[in-house]
Amino acid sequence: MKEHVLVASGFGGQGIMLLGQILATAAMVEDKYSTWLPSYGPEMRGGTANCTVVISEEPIGSPVTDSPRQVIAMNIPSLIKFEKVIQQEGLLVLNSSVIDRDPERDDVEIVRVEANEIAEKLGNTRVANMVILGAFLAKTGAVSEESISKALEMKFGSKKDSLAELNMKAIRAGAESVRK
Amino acid sequence: MSVLTTFKPPKALSGKEFTYCPGCQHGTVHRLIAEVIDELQIQGRTIMVAPVGCSVFAYEFFDVDGTVAAHGRAPAVATGMKRALKDSVVFTYQGDGDLAAIGTAEIVHAANRGEKITTIFINNAIYGMTGGQMAPTTLLGMKTSTCPYGRTVENDGYPVHVCELLKETGGIAYLERTTVNTPQDIRKTRKALRKAFTAQLKGLGFSLVEVLSTCPTNWGMNPIEATEWLEENLKREFKVGLFVDKVGDDQ
Amino acid sequence: MTEKTMVKGNEAMAEAAIRAGCRLYFGYPITPQSEFTEYMAKRLPEVGGSFLQSESEVSAVNMIYGAACTGRRVLTSTSGPGFSLMQEGMSYIAGAELPSVFVNVVRGGPGLGDIQPAQSDYFQATKGGGHGDYHAVVLGPGTIQEAVELISDAFDIADRYRTPVIVLADGMLGQMMEPVIFGKYRDPDSLPDHSEWSLTGAGKREPHKVTSFNIDPYELEKMNMRYQAKYKEIIKNETRYETIRTEDADYLLVGFGTMGRILGSVIRQAREQGIKVGLFRPITLWPFPYDQLKKSAKGKKYVLDVEMSTGQMVEDVRLAVGDSLPVHFYGRTGGVVPNPEEVLQALRKHTEEAE
Prior knowledge:
The structure holds three protein chains of three kinds.
Chain A: E1 4-11, H1 16-29, E2 33-38, E3 48-56, E4 70-73, H2 76-83, E5 91-95, E6 109-113, H3 115-121, H4 128-140, H5 145-156, H6 163-179
Parallel strand pairs in A: 1-4, 4-5, 5-6
Antiparallel strand pairs in A: 1-3, 2-3
Chain B: H1 26-40, E1 46-50, H2 58-61, E2 65-68, H3 74-84, E3 89-95, H4 96-102, H5 104-112, E4 118-123, H6 153-156, H7 162-166, E5 172-179, H8 183-201, E6 206-212, H9 216-219, H10 223-237, E7 241-245
Parallel strand pairs in B: 1-2, 1-3, 3-4, 4-6, 5-6
Antiparallel strand pairs in B: 5-7
Helix pairs in contact in B: 1-8, 4-5
Chain C: E1 4-8, H1 9-19, E2 24-27, H2 34-46, E3 50-53, H3 57-69, E4 74-78, H4 80-85, H5 87-96, E5 100-106, H6 122-126, E6 137-139, H7 144-161, E7 164-170, H8 171-175, E8 177-181, E9 209-210, H9 217-238, E10 241-244, E11 251-254, H10 257-272, E12 277-282, E13 284-286, H11 290-297, E14 302-307, H12 313-321, E15 327-331, H13 340-354
Parallel strand pairs in C: 2-3, 2-4, 4-5, 5-7, 6-7, 11-12, 11-14, 14-15
Antiparallel strand pairs in C: 1-8, 6-13, 10-12
Helix pairs in contact in C: 1-2, 1-7, 3-5, 10-13, 11-12
């Protein structure tokens, strides 16, 4: 059974919650089981925010985890908080535009993405979340690009020039950056 | 021989015998409410909410749909009814402990929301049903079983002036304090009740009539002495009069 | 066409209430259920309903009482501290036999506690909470899909038996998202008729009186016996539970709600490790499936009850199982959710002891 257990974490405002929701929705599009669970309460008011996404072929028991298989860290506090709990041989995707230090773990795969720079080239730094999600997808194949595209349409509508299209460009650019 | 009926009970009273003590003015106020319901022809769409206190049985005395709320919660119960059934006429009947102590939050917020309900507030400055304890409206110096040495500011604070508090709330459409000691007072109260229900019927907001009343049993007086005591003491603390009237002339 | 949507638990439950024909909501914001209140504030005006943010949960529950008196479907949502404030009204509502639905998105307690998921309001929900001899029906959904379905059932049960029904969720279920298929919209005009007793203004009929009140102890006893007869019917007709792989199991796990779903993955992992374990998941917490659990536990070597509390439902589990086999307990409290690994550890420990 292939199961993805991802914690995505960053500053409030970096689009972490949306990243997780799009991923979980794309899994739903593929008729997989998926859950999205946010951290909630006072910490979401300006501090770090994180969410957990589980994708599975079987009904999901726990939507929460102490030891994620994969971590997306969008800032240094997130790296510090979650680096130590990643499963061995897990995956750590870093936003290297913001995180200017090296992780300490050497038993996990580390992927660095210049998410802000890539997003800026696309004309909007706010899609850095989708850039890093694209990188995550290229590494894990958790869901297909088509499913992500459908999930974005469900969120933003399907019009040309819509936010869905911009976000999709960011996904592709992020994926491209790790394939290089 | 023909019989001319010149005096009969209002239709909106059920005819059940009142449970009130001799000289208690609940009965007078009940009758006035029923007369107004008859006059406005709203009996068929009226729902009443009785309180906890001496008038806990009030829902039995009126010939309308009725319930009895938890202590102090009548305005919240009435709110739920009115929001569910916008064409109904909903009124609460509450004493001073119920409305001005345990139910303070409910009455203030119902009034402030301009909830389209009517409240009849009986203020006799004492807890009746539980046997004569201090009410939020008990006068300074007045002795009750829970202020046996007389109410003091140091220990109990001041008598609560409900009309004066509520008149500042935005949702009030009609607000008056009356008595039912004399025939003139009774006529004034009847008019106030009619206006209060009219405020609701016109959808103007929340309406309340506070009636200063006697409690001969717990005041330890006979009914005549009680009316005199009300005139001399209760009316000095709680000024009778009109506080808010957005109804205008409904006659 | 049935379409899956990705929805947050709180919003999904709120939408389910609207689809069940509920057009009246009274409530007060409290974490972790506030999205429920917000959703109702937005949606109810769209469907011609009435939303009111009350001044307190004390008022909210009494507004529920008033609205339920009119025979209309009405619901509120809250979390532990707010539900505590509602207990006065719950008792009156049970006594006056008013159909109504309450959702408690439980958080860590006691007192202010925290806002993380918990199951420590089990006693309050199932054993009364308010004063007097009464019960509310208590439903414990394990997934958002089940919560959506149980909200609808909650209204039907409330109407059928003139009783309050509590949906006992938790912060996890309220805050998480997962795919959901919603039921059809029910027309509020096609719902069960309560005109025999409801307060609507008497019109030309005899006035109705709805109260929880009778000053005569013999009469009040009669009222109570009527409630008890009703509870017997509910026990007979409405007791629900789910079993997973109990037939060939050596050991039995018991858990409800979020814990029940987590135990679902525990039994998969345990069986991969050669521990033959099954799951008994009560869905109605009141009425509790005592007889059914007793049957499922028969022949097992032990029962392990797991809760997000220091052990509340375990008392009912012990009542069901009796002395016939050991009943062990594992729980985390204060908003901590047991993870599958620590439950597996507990399973391994008890299995070693049993061998």
